[in-house]
Amino acid sequence: MLRKYSTHRTHDDNLKLGALTAFSAGMVNVISVIVFFAFTSNVTGHYAVFAQELAKGNWFQAAIVILWIMLFFFGSFTSNFVIIHGNNYIGRYLSHAIPIILEIICLLVVGIYLQGFYTESLQETEFLVGLLLFAMGLQNGLTASISNSAVKTTHLTGLTTDLAIALSMMTKKHYRKDEKVVEKIQLLSSIMFFYVLGGVITGVLYNTIQNYTFYIVCFFLTIIIFYDYYKLTILKYNHKKFFSLRQEEVKESKSNVHQEQNNRITEKNTCY
């Protein structure tokens, strides 16, 4: 899911990445609404709140909201920065995994703080909401960067529009046979489904385990990292096995050639 980049990715790569990251984004967004009464997987509503606070002359609250927006922005910026600069120095897989690792750290900090230190003050809420927005910016920047903007999983506004357009195209026979249109519908539908599924599961889980739900999100993000690690390990093993077998074949071939040469020399000496 993470080791391939841009146009080198397959439809299956994007499906897996989109489903798991959408699932985690849906979980984070619902739990942030439950705990903080704020959306954290997108910033569309925050722009409206920012404009409203400016109109009312609430400069401090407007500054807080614009800070939240900038944290989401900086999260996306950080993801792409690590990806484009890290590919040449630390490898593609690791540079793609770092944004997910940073996201996991942010979610762990929020979960641990809520369990042991949270007093429900306004300042704490503003800080934790900002941290979640940064985490969601990291995720959205990562998925958009490595998939050439095909996968965006933290908000559904543009996705709903794209899905509606793609479905309308299916009303013409020409597009129903277009593999790219069909794959796009599959990808967008899976993202939407798993986003909603993540939200529903979070709503149910929170009634039982409450703030431990953040650790469940971290678990799914960890699956994304170790899935590719597992695939890379298998590929390396198969490559070494293939190389070893190839060497044995070459040695055997050389041995056979050498044996044939000896046989010919023996035959010639016998004739003489």
From TrEMBL:
InterPro entries: DUF1275 (IPR010699)
Record Pfam families: DUF1275
Membrane-spanning segments: 20-39, 59-84, 96-115, 127-146, 185-206, 212-230
Signal peptide: none
Key words, A-Z: Membrane, Transmembrane, Transmembrane helix
Protein name: Uncharacterized membrane protein YoaK, UPF0700 family
